[in-house]
Amino acid sequence: MQHHTASSQPSTTSATRRTLARIAAACVLGTGLLVTGVAAQAKEFVSIKGNTVNVREQPNTRSTTLWELGSGYPLQVQQRKGKWIKVRDYEAPLGWVYAPLTQKTPHRIVTARTANLRASPTTNSKIVGKLQQNEIVRTLKNSGSWAQVRSESGRQGWVSKNLTWGW
Fold first, then answer.
1. Edge-to-edge strand ranges of the sheet holding 107-110
2. Distance CA 46, CA 86 (A)
3. How crowded is residue 105: how many other Cβ atoms within 10 Å of its Cβ?
4. For residue 5, what is the DSSP state?
5. Which residues in the chain show pLDDT less than 50?
């Protein structure tokens, strides 16, 4: 029979357990960071294809209509279920949209009260127009923190991305 005496050194078994526990914790945290990083990079956007599309509570046509969205409205895909996608906008999760009624054409929505439409992607360039809050614009090109856009009326120019949401 072996007797252990109290000492300042932990036993080999408890030291090994602590080391294994730290390694396991690091692996779990590392995996979480990896998954989070992948999820953060995997943002999928779509925009509304039709004139008006219903956003529903559940992924079926019998479900309650929560919202009606107009052409070009940008959405972020959160989940897929068959031919339905669960979407959100810049404010909150919205509900389910029938995926064939969406498109991969990039659009942005103006989130600021107003946004200057400029001749080039700089605050020093000439203002060629104004965009209003909730106005939907078609994204033509991106350059750093600027997006070249075209409004429904045909006005074209550059807008600061931080005044809009979409892609």
1. 127-132, 114-118, 156-160, 146-151, 136-143, 107-110, 164-166
2. 11
3. 14
4. P
5. 1-41
Residues 6+ apart with CB under 8 A from 22: none
Task: Assess contact for 54 and 32: CB atoms under 8 A.
Answer: no
- Separation between Cα atoms, residue 155 and residue 150, nearest integer Å: 5
Segments of the chain assigned E as strands: 44-48, 52-56, 65-70, 74-81, 84-88, 93-98, 102-103, 107-110, 114-118, 127-132, 136-143, 146-151, 156-160, 164-166
pTM of the entire structure?
A: 0.74
What are the beta bridge partners of residue 132? Answer: 114
Q: Tell me the per-residue pLDDT of 8-19, one tens digit each, with 9 for 90 and over.
A: 444 444 444 444
Give the model's pLDDT for residue 50. 86
